[in-house]
Structures are given as structure tokens and as C-alpha cells.
Automatic annotation (TrEMBL), chain A:
Chain segments carrying region Disordered: 63-97
Family of the protein in this entry: Belongs to the DENR family.
CDD domains, A to Z: DENR_C
Gene3D superfamilies: SUI1-like domain
GO MF assignments: mRNA binding; translation initiation factor activity
All residue ranges annotated as the SUI1 domain in the record: 81-149
Entry-linked PROSITE patterns: SUI1
Name of the protein this chain belongs to: SUI1 domain-containing protein
Domain of life: Eukaryota
TrEMBL record, chain B:
GO molecular function: RNA binding
Species this protein is from: Caenorhabditis auriculariae
Gene Ontology annotations of biological process type: formation of translation preinitiation complex; translation reinitiation
Cellular compartment(s): Cytoplasm
Alphabetical keyword list: Cytoplasm
Name under which the protein is recorded: PUA domain-containing protein
Length: 165, 185
């Protein structure tokens, strides 16, 4: 059923999307407000326009020019909650054990190799600064890291718990 | 759709994709967004691997090599750019402009009603078919505030002028917006 619908979309869309404007360099640089995280022109609707404005005057006064922030434009008292948190998803027997290794100037490739040998399990570089070690080796890892690389101290290792990834 | 999206709860897993699969996705993106061609290299560099993040409700996200979510896919849509990607490359999707009065409701996650698209402050792009994914722009604003999927075609919206016109998939300050702000590990 969706076949048909998708086909339609794919055929029609090219003539509808406006396409890049001549003489404009993409990607566009959008100024985001540090308070409400939206583009600054939408600060009026953030529900805390005051805070946004204070932020803007201190951080990006030049972007404020030409933007009129109407003081009581929108009486939207809803505070949207900030979402915090870090890391995600599920472990199983794979333990994502550590990252930020690069901060210690450790070659990730070398480290993966070492982990794979030491723990007799799969180990791979999966991201810019991330290594996945397949196997429940977290405790051993904590011993291994400082002994192998003296620049890592016990204090600098943090157990992030069972984080999903 | 992404109103309550939370990375701890809604993400079920992230996978590194095989390069053949990545090639397929790139091809699909090019097909769906022909204008993206000169810029695809900037968004998803060929040399780097991107990740597919699977979430609940058949939602899938594409994160580039630094972990920033660039595209999303829902049950009913193909891969579409996230708002942050769209802000950088606004020409990827057809634009529909709503009037000022609609902004605050849309930022609250509500669907876009027909009158908001047909009033004087709005600009309804003609001939957009049903189910097409569009960028929701606002009167007097430069950047998109939401991404939606047409529930009727442009012509129907014009003639019916009542009820839901565009479904709100992703809007400023929803869960996905906050997710795309930082990289996911």
C-alpha cells in the first residue's frame, strides 16, 4: 500500500521543493538562542522571553539587530522542561565501557587491539571517541587502563553504569 | 510524534550500518531530495560511517559520524531531514507557510489546521499531494518551525478549509529537537 504513496511522493517532490537559492552558501548559519534553543526569531514564543533576551544581549548582540522582540507578545507561561541526561540504550552482554580516551591521547585503534587480545573478545572502534568491547569485562578494564596508560588515573575513570547505546 | 521523545526510553539500539546499506540510503536520499546532491557530502561524508538508531514505534534516526542526528524516518514517511538539518538546508522540502496565530500552537505540537494555511498571512504551496512531507514556515519568520506531513492535498486544504491540514511530525523544542542538539553515543 505504501508503495504507491511513496512512489507518488518521490516523483512529485522534485518540482515542489524550492531548491537552493543562487548565491547563498549552504549550510546556512542559524543563530540559536542559548536559553530556549530555538532560532532567535522564535524567542517570543519560548515562554521565557525575558531570559532569552538577556541571553541574547550578552551573547549575540549583533544577531539581535533587526529582530524585534516584543516584550509581552505572547503570554505563554508554559515552561517547557529541559531534557537532560546522557547516553542511551541497552547493554546485554556487550558492555560499552569507555570513551573520551582521545582526551588522553591514546590511539583508539591500538587500544581496541589491546582490549581484544587481553580480554579475548571482540572490540571495535564505533565512533569518533568510542570503543565497544563485547564481553563483561568492565572490572578488569578498570585495572587494565591505569596500568597500561599511566596518564589515566583511577579518578579519571567513571563507571557510567549499564547504559544503553 | 516526537513530543515526548526521550533518548533513554525511546531508543532501542544503534547499529553501525554495512557500507552497502549506507550506499542504498544515500541513493534513496538523493532520489527523494534531488537538490541535496552537492551537499550530501557535507551532511553524511562518504568516508565516514553513519549510524542507524532504532527507536520505538518504527522510528529510525540517521546519525552522522559525529553522532548528530541528521535524518529521521517514521512509520509513515521515508527518511526526512530533521529540523536542524532543514535549517541549514531549507530548500530540501516544499514550504508551507502558516499565519502568526498558528505559531504557538504548532510549537506546542498541535497539527496544522487548514485555516492557518489559507488565511492572508499564510502561503499555501499549490499542488503538494497528500502524504508529502513539508517544511512548516511561519509568517514573518525566516526559519522553519516544524516538519509536517500533508493530511490533504493543497487543493483540498484550499477547498475544505476546515480541520487538520498537515500533521505535525517534528517541531521546535520537541524531544527530537533536544536530541539532535548533542551527539548520541
Amino acid at each position: 500500500m505504501s508503495d504507491n504513496a511513496e512512489g507518488d511522493v518521490a516523483v512529485v517532490r522534485p518540482c515542489l521543493a524550492p531548491g537552493p537559492t543562487e548565491g547563498v552558501n549552504y549550510p546556512l548559519k542559524v543563530h540559536y538562542c542559548g536559553e530556549c534553543s530555538m532560532p532567535m526569531e522564535y524567542c517570543d514564543y519560548s515562554g521565557r522571553t525575558e531570559a532569552c533576551r538577556t541571553w541574547a544581549t550578552t551573547h549575540a548582540p549583533e544577531a539581535l539587530e533587526g529582530l524585534s522582540i516584543d516584550d509581552n507578545a505572547e503570554e505563554n507561561e508554559k515552561k517547557h522542561q529541559k531534557r537532560g541526561g546522557k547516553g542511551t540504550s541497552k547493554p546485554k552482554d556487550k558492555k560499552k565501557s569507555d570513551w573520551r580516551l582521545q582526551t588522553f591521547e591514546i590511539d583508539l585503534k591500538v587500544a581496541t587491539k589491546l582490549f581484544a587480545q587481553k580480554f579475548a573478545c571482540g572490540s571495535s572502534v564505533t565512533g569518533a571517541d568510542e570503543i565497544v568491547i563485547q564481553g563483561d569485562v568492565k572490572d578488569d578494564l578498570f585495572d587494565l587502563l591505569p596500568s597500561k596508560w599511566p596518564q589515566i588515573t583511577d579518578d579519571s575513570i567513571e563507571d557510567l553504569g549499564d547504559k544503553k547505546r | 510524534m516526537f513530543k515526548k521523545f526521550d533518548e533513554k526510553e525511546d531508543i532501542t539500539g544503534a547499529t553501525q550500518l554495512k557500507s552497502s546499506v549506507q550506499k542504498g540510503i544515500r541513493k534513496k536520499l538523493l532520489e527523494n531530495f534531488p537538490h541535496i546532491e552537492p551537499y550530501l557530502e557535507d551532511i553524511l561524508p562518504k568516508k565516514e560511517n553513519f549510524k542507524l538508531i532504532k527507536c520505538k514505534d518504527h522510528v529510525e534516526l540517521l546519525a552522522d559520524h559525529t553522532g548528530v542526528v541528521r535524518f529521521m524516518k517514521t512509520r509513515n514517511t521515508d527518511f526526512v531531514p530533521t529540523l536542524r538539518t532543514l535549517h541549514k538546508y531549507p530548500f530540501l522540502l516544499p514550504h508551507q507557510q502558516v499565519d502568526k496565530g498558528a505559531i504557538k500552537f504548532i510549537l506546542n505540537g498541535s497539527a496544522i489546521m487548514c485555516p492557518g494555511l489559507t488565511s492572508p498571512g499564510a502561503k499555501l504551496t499549490a499542488t503538494v499531494p497528500k502524504d508529502a512531507v513539508v517544511a512548516i514556515m511561519a509568517e514573518g519568520k525566516e526559519h522553519a518551525l516544524a516538519i509536517g506531513q500533508m493530511l490533504m492535498s493543497s487543493e483540498e486544504i484550499q477547498s475544505v478549509n476546515k480541520g487538520y491540514g498537515v500533521e505535525n511530525i517534528h517541531y521546535l523544542n520537541d524531544g527530537l529537537w533536544h536530541l539532535a542538539e548533542k551527539s548520541i553515543n
